[in-house]
Amino acid sequence: MKPVEKGWLGIPDFNPAFSLDKEEVATWCVPIDQAVRGQALMKVFAAYDLRHDCWNLDLPMLLQTAGHCIDVMNFKLDEVTVGIGRISPLAPIIQTWEEWVLEWREYPCTQATGKAIHSIEPTIEDEERNMNHGCLNGIRVGFDDGELLIQNGLDTNLLWWVNAEGSRTCLGNGND
Questions:
Q1: What is the dihedral of CA 55, 42, 125, 16, to 10 degrees?
Q2: Domain limits of the chain?
Q3: Splitting the chain (176 residues) into consecutive groups of 10 residues, what average pLDDT does each group show?
């Protein structure tokens, strides 16, 4: 058995590479897309703060399919990491700080769960009024009837559901 090494943000063995480059992140998405295309998104997990009774979306968001767990995380203004099989929602979050007591919990995302994944790809901020316009801004998970966006919420993760008509619904920013 491999010994657990302390990882980034208290996640065992998690030391991800981040990128600002859409093309580099797109290459990371290719094997993930190939592994999960056509599989149903079963659950979405996020870190939950037991001490303050609220979500902490600073840590990666976990997307669970029948055989895989995808992690997506936004950092700083325009850095993204995405991987598969690097984190399990069953693994504890090792406490390295006093302010939070965190554990993985299923995050409410009924718009996307139960639906077959069609694509996973990086996104660029297209809203001109945002200061990160034109920058790498997260990951898009495509479905038949819309897409789940895990985007940068200024050094945290921000979740959106965008339906087939383009209407956006905020699914959370950690303050709900």
A1: 70
A2: 8-172
A3: 60 89 95 97 95 90 96 86 95 80 93 97 84 82 96 79 93 65
